[in-house]
Amino acid sequence: MTASCHSTTGRLATCFLPMAPHTASVFALLLLLVTRGEPAPLQAAEGDFTPAPLTAPVGYAIERAASPPLVAHPLMGALDPQGRLYVAATAGENLRRPDLEEQLPNFVQRLEDVDGDGVFDKATIFADKMTFPQGCLWYRGSLYVASSGAIWKLTDDDDDGVADRREKLVDGFNYGGNAADVHGCFLGPEGRIYWCDGRWGHELKDDQGQIVSQGKAAHIFSCRPDGSHVRSHATGGMDNPVEIVFTPTGDMLGTVNLMYSQPRGDCLVHWQYGGVYPREDFASTLDSELLRTGDLLTEVHNFGHVAVSGLCRLESNSWGPGAVGDLLVTVFNTNRIVRVKLKPAGSTYQVDQLEDFLVSSSRDFHPTDVLEDADGSVLVIDTGGWFRIGCPQSQIAKSDIHGAIYRIRKTGAVRPADPRGLTIDWPALDDQRLLALLGDERPAVVVRARERLADRLVGKVGAGLAKTMLALWDQQSPAVQQRYLQLAALPETPFSAAIFLAGLGHSNAGVRQMACRCLYDKGTEDPQAINALLIERLKDASPAVRREAAAALGQRTIGEKSPVERREIVETLLAALPANVDDPLVRHALVYALIDAGEREATSAGLLSPHQAVRTAAAIALEQMRQKTSRPDKPLLKFPAPAIGAPLTEAEQNQVLQRLEGLPQGEADRGKALFYHEKSACSKCHRVGSQGGQVGPDLTTIGRIRGGQDLLASMMFPSASFARGFESYTVETVQGQRKSGILLGENGREIRLGLDKDHAVAIPIDQIDQIVPSPLSIMPPDVAKQLSDQELADLLAWLLLQK
């Protein structure tokens, strides 16, 4: 079976996979039941494409949903109400920012399953000439895309599969081309558009050109769908937050890489409003631009050095009622997807169960995204072997390995009838019938009903619909009432305070929490009554409700209220601290609300409290208020994009293979001794466990993420690729001195460069003339030459055991 492609408009490239009458039976052969530990023998079909060898638990089946030539190097995806899949994809090239902006080689595709068999068979280029798109979201008729440097809103007016309008909603995000920048977008419960931004720095301006936000930290940002009201939700020194999901109660969970550096930790995080997170080595610098409420907030789970990426929360019950709420996390380096079950722990979560779900024996299978389809199946996006910049596993770029998209089904699961509601006459539905669909068991139908209700609420019939919702409130389940509150939270909807008061006073903790969450920045006509109930919720039996009540109070323009109201709110916040001293997230929310309130006199009273927790919180809040109002804007020390190294040539790759094939059997014990011996000098820069240096990547689990060929290539050609966080820089001082090394940290006064295990240098910022990225690794270029074949084999044998 071959694909034919043609261009119909000069900009519309369409690819069809011809389907024979027996197509259904052909693809039925690809539906395989797989037992853990046995490779999934998915057979090659189109062209030379060979599916990755995959295993899944007993009771799950794997299908191919899209493969070359229909797709190549897909990254992230999103589905629209018709079931069309939008895919942020690349040309398979590793390019720095100047080259990306000059060539604009990447794009967004739209894939369609024309015959409904679960296999996509038509593709159009929805938006070409993109920098580096890393995610997308369909919302109310448009596609929101985070592409390096900016957030875009793309709209296809005539539904021909090509975006007719491109609106740049927010820009000013720095990037270098290593994928550690903007990712998204994601829809928040209150209708805001969220995205992640890596630690490359940003400078955001309003329509008048005034800077509204500037800094070097990583952030979780959000804005309204029109790009207005940009704000940061959480921030820190982590390298690269990637994806986020929301729970039915409004909690935000996300994946983040390099939250810790020595040893590296890639994590699952419960992001908090105003939260500041590690890395510790950048914490002192970030103090100069961020508001702290005490210790840095921490993760829900640390996966280790694995490179997490896509994240999905299962919403349907197709995999069984016990699966609803499970998380699927893609792991780039170890070629798998893990399944995570969480359980409450105070006002946050902890891992209850964690297991491998989908695993490949191929090191060229790199899952980057996972998303649930309307029928309960799960789509897995494998980007292939092209990515190399800053990736410790991909020493050699393999752009000829194009990746694919797979579908996972639970065998025996009952497929819901019309899972997308395609047979529903949506325009003919009156308000009550449309509202009834908010309680539908089909998640995609609920999403579609919510979008249509949102459109009506901001239109001419909005006021009447809002009154209908209030009248029907008591007849709804808690789940539907949470969805009512989400609609009421939309900034342009005409809701009275009554629906929020009903939510705040509800008997169900999840409804109370969602009511607090939806009041972050929603104005109402009766703020006194709202604030009175929020204050009451500070004593709620649920710690999560207490946390969200404090966050809502802090954001509801406390400073604009009367002096008496402000004092009462601050006194209540202070009084709530002793009962919440053991819950870091509630404590954080209370202190951040005090900072937002800005009431120095009332907060100062807390310094005289008999409770240590109150005195500490008051002192922190007062100090942060001072910094918030008096901190001068400092020029940022901007680091240039690091050198990314030149990919190995064919001749160099042949050298690696020839040396590898000529190596004898290695002996791991001898390899361990050699690692710590002066001859190899490996431990001078690299750490395994608690022993060794810290100016090179931690190798404690290197055997999980690299094969022998990649390890040998990094020894023979260390400057071909730099592990993320270990790029080399040369610093030139105003006196003409030059120092080269890796950046260990900075504190606003000086930077620290690591030269080797025993030597680091601190250079005052005011003495720096320029910082130049170095194309050369600080790792000696002749390590492999200094070792005999037997020594090299021994060293590789030991390193490959480090898992």
Q: Could you characterize what this model shows?
A:
The structure is a single chain. The protein starts with a strand and ends with a helix. By secondary structure, the chain is an alpha+beta fold. Helix content is 25%, strand content 28%. Among the domains are: 496-636, Leucine-rich Repeat Variant (Alpha Horseshoe), CATH 1.25.10.10; 650-799, SH3 type barrels, CATH 2.30.30.100. Helix 7 packs parallel to helix 9 and helix 12 (563-576) runs antiparallel to helix 13. The chain has a six-stranded antiparallel β-sheet with strand order 1-2-9-8-7-6. The radius of gyration is 27 Å and the shape is globular. GO terms for molecular function: electron transfer activity; heme binding; metal ion binding. This is HEAT repeat protein. Residues 666-803 form the Cytochrome c domain. Keywords: Heme, Iron, Metal-binding. It comes from Lignipirellula cremea.
